[in-house]
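User: Reviewer 2 asked us to show a designed sequence for the structure in our supplementary figure. I'm pasting the structure tokens here. Could you produce the per-position amino acids so we can include them in the response letter?
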């Protein structure tokens, strides 16, 4: 069985192409993979029907998915695109964020969050996270605001929402945009409100291992119609009408190009898959919650393991289940990962702090030690297998393997 990892995370990668488009040969047949996609006959039929329909690029399925996402998360406007990365970059571009502007975000994220800021010529300003939930610390955001700050990008780590009230207050006081990196958080609720309705815009990921997938894909949710329309144009080269809208109204072929846009649209067969996946999203989150609760029950008393914290006032969508291997554990985190792999358990690490990557080091703005909480969390983090079809037996196997390893019984028998 092939396994898929979050792009950029450590660990074994399976035979399915990752973001870089490379194929890594499978290293071993994992007994419990990090992730196993749930693709059923309805998904396959929906994609086949779309392929046979004669409309392959962005079209009726993409439009329907936008409406269904809008109904699901309560956001009046949704734009589907080909990744969460694209959704974030398009929103920042639509707000004309560029050279001379600063955007505050967390170093404890996938590199995409920071890359989109850099691509637009703006400057990412990292602030550290809170130890308890790995999420950006609002107190530190407030300290980092300067006259050049234009926006804040909080990241809802693992599906646990950031403190959006505090972030909204800071943004309101300084006239800043808030763009949620909700790659992990479709279905997350913040004080009873689904992500997608809380800030200026939220970007979702439908990457292969996300809570719902379009293979690759993403969406931007917003209440701002002007933003949505601008993003729609920027998604397709800055054109005033996309292909579907050019041909649907009886051959209205003429269009203008009003800005220099991108090529980030979502193909219709991918959207057809997304519609089926969205119809099953609640089931998927319920099953992920079952897995998370079983991990929590099994690992609750295990020495040297710090469990993920979550706030019961919210609904955690459980994209990831990330434990910390305590600093006083007899086995180091890297050894725990190796030993789990030897026992047939595939894991990952979320995240390697962005400022420690070579490309970011070479910018000369950050040093090791600048974000001590993020660095400490990253050094101890292990993302355990998490997927909706994971059986209770598989969860128990992972927990038993971890227990054996931490008690020093970590050689493969
Ligand atoms: C926190 C976070 N932001 C953004 C992304 C990028 O998502 P995508 O691959 O859909 O561009 C990811 C990716 O997997 C992520 O984990």
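Assistant: Here is a per-position design you can include in the supplement:
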């Amino acid at each position: 069985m092939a396994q898929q990892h979050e792009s950029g995370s450590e660990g074994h990668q399976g035979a399915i192409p990752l973001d870089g488009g490379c194929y890594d040969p499978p290293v071993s047949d994992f007994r419990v993979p990090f992730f196993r996609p749930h693709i059923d006959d309805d998904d396959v039929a929906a994609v086949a029907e779309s392929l046979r329909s004669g409309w392959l690029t962005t079209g009726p399925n993409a439009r329907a998915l936008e409406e269904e996402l809008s109904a699901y998360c309560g956001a009046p406007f949704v734009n589907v695109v080909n990744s969460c990365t694209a959704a974030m970059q398009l929103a920042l571009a639509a707000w004309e964020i560029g050279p001379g502007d600063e955007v505050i975000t967390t170093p404890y994220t996938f590199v995409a969050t920071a890359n989109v800021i850099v691509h637009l010529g703006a400057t990412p300003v990292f602030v550290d996270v809170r130890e308890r939930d790995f999420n950006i610390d609002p107190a530190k955001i407030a300290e980092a605001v300067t006259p050049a700050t234009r926006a804040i990008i909080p990241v809802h780590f693992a599906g646990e929402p950031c403190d959006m009230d505090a972030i909204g207050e800071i943004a309101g006081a300084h006239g800043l945009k808030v763009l949620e990196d909700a790659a992990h958080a479709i279905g997350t609720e913040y004080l009873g409100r689904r992500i997608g309705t809380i800030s200026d815009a939220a970007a979702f990921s439908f990457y292969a291992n996300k809570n719902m997938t379009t293979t690759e894909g993403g969406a931007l949710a917003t209440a701002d119609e002007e933003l949505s329309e601008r993003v729609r144009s920027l998604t397709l080269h800055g054109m005033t009408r996309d292909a579907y809208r050019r041909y649907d109204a009886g051959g209205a072929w003429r269009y203008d190009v009003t800005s220099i846009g991108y090529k980030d649209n979502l193909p219709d067969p991918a959207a057809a898959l997304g519609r089926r996946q969205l119809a099953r999203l609640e089931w998927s989150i319920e099953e992920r919650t079952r897995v998370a609760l079983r991990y929590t029950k099994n690992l609750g008393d295990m020495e040297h393991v710090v469990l993920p914290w979550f706030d019961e006032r919210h609904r955690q969508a459980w994209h990831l289940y990330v434990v910390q291997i305590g600093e006083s554990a007899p086995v180091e985190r890297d050894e725990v990962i190796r030993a789990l792999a030897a026992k047939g358990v595939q894991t990952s690490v979320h995240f390697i702090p962005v400022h420690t990557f070579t490309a970011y080091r070479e910018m000369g703005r950050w040093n090791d030690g600048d974000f001590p909480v993020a660095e400490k969390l990253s050094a101890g983090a292990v993302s355990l297998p998490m997927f909706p079809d994971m059986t209770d037996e598989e969860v128990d196997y992972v927990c038993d393997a971890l227990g054996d390893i931490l008690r020093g019984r970590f050689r493969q028998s």
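For the response letter, you might also mention the following. The chain has two domains: 41-279, 281-406. The first strand starts at residue 77 and ends at 81.
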